[in-house]
UniProtKB/TrEMBL annotation:
The keyword Signal applies. Transmembrane segments: none annotated. The keyword Signal applies. This is DUF3500 domain-containing protein. It comes from Gemmata massiliana. InterPro entries: DUF3500. PANTHER family: DUF3500 DOMAIN-CONTAINING PROTEIN (PTHR37489:SF1). Residues 1-19 form the signal peptide. Keywords: Signal.
Length: 345
């Protein structure tokens, strides 16, 4: 066999191998990753745990989401689902892989930081606290059968964290509600001093508020704080939008507003975040509202909303943290309008 013929065969073989590798290494869609992760998670469970984790797609529990502590008078958990505390190391890893499939790398880092704050809250509040602080009290629920043909959904949830997804025919049709919260918003003392689990959603809005001129601020600032985020139901019930519309902002201010929304959408995997941001940028400026109340200065309470026809961002920082530092306790959510969970009116 000639050297030329050997070279041609070698190149042809290399091309085939390369093509095969490209075919096997091409990134899967977010929907297929979620389906695979949910299937692996359920497959890792014992029959008892699988029963706890599995629900019909139409079960009312799917829309009964909560980010506040859920416990009875004896400080026992009341959340449904399979909790991390009762899983083996392998099962827990599968549960976290499912969570990872629904978040970006940054979002996953923030989510796991939120879970880890339960240890800090336990240290600050002590064993006599009215609330149980336990980083293993996070629960996984799967609604319907994970597949590429039908409808199904999943949730990973516990104190200050609720990640909810709905899929249909292998595609994500709703990534909401997604709620991240942080107590404290900034760790003031101890080994973790300076830690801010959710910095962008404060930094960008503070920059935006600071940039408003007197006339703009009169429209954007509201006389009363926005109410607490409504958990336990599919509808955000935020009412009509208020505040200043994006067409009344300068180009620089509008860019800051977009950065703020990117911080929320960026909790999702890149594919979904890009889709959400395309919707944001396609929203007419006259229908994109920003409003806030209070003062975003450190230690002073404030709330804000960004609302468009098909989504709303809600934020509150009005509570003291567990170390009694005022206005150092964040609740923040991305929700669909008019209703979450891919539901219709």
């Amino acid at each position: 066999m000639t050297r030329v013929r050997i070279s041609v065969i070698a190149l042809t073989f290399a091309a085939v191998v390369s093509a095969a590798l490209v075919g096997t290494s091409a990134p899967a869609t977010t929907g297929s990753r979620m389906t695979a992760s949910a299937t692996a998670f359920l497959g890792s469970l014992s029959p008892e745990l699988k029963k706890k984790a599995s629900f019909d797609f139409t079960d009312p529990h799917r829309a009964a989401w909560f980010f506040t502590p859920r416990q009875d008078g004896e400080k026992k958990f009341t959340r449904k689902g399979a909790r991390l505390e009762e899983m083996t190391a392998e099962q827990k890893k599968a549960a976290m892989e499912l969570l990872k499939s629904g978040l970006s790398a940054k979002g996953y880092e923030q989510a796991t930081t939120i879970v880890g704050l339960e240890n800090l809250l336990f240290e600050l509040e002590g064993p006599k606290s009215a609330m149980t602080r336990n980083p293993s009290w996070y629960f996984v629920s799967v609604f319907g059968e994970p597949s590429s043909t039908g409808k199904w959904g999943w949730r990973f949830e516990g104190h200050h964290l609720s990640v909810n997804y709905t899929l249909d025919k292998g595609e994500v049709v709703a990534g909401a509600p997604i709620l991240f919260a942080s107590n404290p918003a900034e760790v003031k003392d101890g080994a973790k001093k300076g830690l801010r689990p959710l910095p962008e959603i404060e930094d960008h809005v503070r920059a935006l508020i600071k940039s408003l001129n007197e006339e703009q601020d009169k429209v954007a600032k509201q006389p009363k704080a926005f109410p607490e985020i409504k958990e336990g139901q599919a509808k955000a019930d935020v009412g009509d939008p208020v505040g200043i519309t994006a067409d009344k902002l300068t180009a620089e201010q509008k860019a800051t507003l977009v950065k703020l929304l990117q911080a929320y959408a960026g909790r999702m995997p890149d594919e979904l975040a890009d889709t959400e941001m395309k919707k944001v940028k396609a929203t007419p400026d006259t229908k994109l509202f920003f409003a806030y109340s209070g003062s975003p200065k450190p230690g002073e309470g404030y709330t804000y909303r960004v609302q468009a026809p098909d989504f709303v961002v809600e934020f509150l920082n009005v509570q003291a943290d567990s170390a009694k530092n005022q206005a150092n306790h964040i609740h923040s959510a991305w929700r669909r309008l008019p209703i979450d969970f891919g539901l219709s009116e």
